[in-house]
């Protein structure tokens, strides 16, 4: 799985980038059944002489219908390279469609046991026991009727002003609480959009791929097509627009589309080894609060974040609904934080709060650059603490893993009296990394090593020793 997981980029979905060495257009090998797990892959061998181009007038064979189980290779291809592959039985009929090269298809197909483990599931749901209808009035002979169990979701679907449909918490959610997991239904090779240069052909090919999805999955996928453009208008997005909204994410998870965007989200997410997208509560959420994720890097300047939202997730401005200027309705971009946001009261006006936010973010990124530079002078403890404070004041609880890691490392650079602080922040980094990257992430392992042996770690007094040698050498 290493070749696959290393290529995943964060985003509502993730980009699948197969190693370049595996993508050379060599002659296609014969398919090999997956004998180890007893699941023989169902293939229709591709004859290059029968390849269908999306750029010519030839139509696919109308009788070419994928089977309801097992992997199937179609003869619907572009430039003899990118073809449609399906496994409609995956996930109890949820299904998945690939748009990729033959060599990469063979690799992914052999991961079907992992893909099978990915599922759409509400992990924070609670079970409520109910009495069957009529049981209370039943006679003594009926009192042994088993009670029914009903699943209660921790959120409900609701209309969010200036955003459209979204999710609202119905119960209190603590930081670190697993919320939902989602399975992928569409994987598109990263080079497809560059190599197929005609947009109309790309759209035709993508539409054909999605058309193979099982009806229920296709219906869920199509819900993503609508975007809110104004208070009284919507527009349908193409599949390419759904996939290419940066950061590039070429794996699609329809069950996650109701999470609305915020530059200061309360939900973090990551992709696990089964290609399941998992969401976790990043800070305490109260009943009635909107559940949000960041579709773009929250550490970018406000202007860049607004331009991204205006281009890929357009929202109407309350003051000018018909305006086409970039607008992001989240509190970090509007400054409407006068009540209480992120657990921190901001009594200043929206304009003042935006100015303060811009300054905080500028300072945060400035100090971050110093902390990440191993060759810079030692950063004093007060600056490290200020760096962490800026994260919390900005509502960046979903980005604390790196912050705590940098704090731990830089305290360890100082050594001696600061080893307790290094251990403290390494342990906090482990907790945050589990939320943001998953319990088996490299960030978790690295910080556990530091927390377990602070003085034996490579970073112990690193900058003091390094600078001392330089001084003596000079």
TrEMBL record:
Keywords assigned by UniProt, alphabetized: Signal
Domain SET: residue ranges: 153-296
Compositional bias of kind Low complexity: 124-137
Keyword Signal recorded: yes
Signal peptide per UniProt: 1-19
Domain of life from the UniProt record: Eukaryota
Alphabetical list of Gene3D superfamilies matching this protein: SET domain
Keyword Signal: yes
Compositionally biased tracts (Basic and acidic residues): 138-151
Stretches for region Disordered: 124-151
PROSITE patterns: SET (PS50280)
Protein name (record): SET domain-containing protein
Organism: Neurospora intermedia
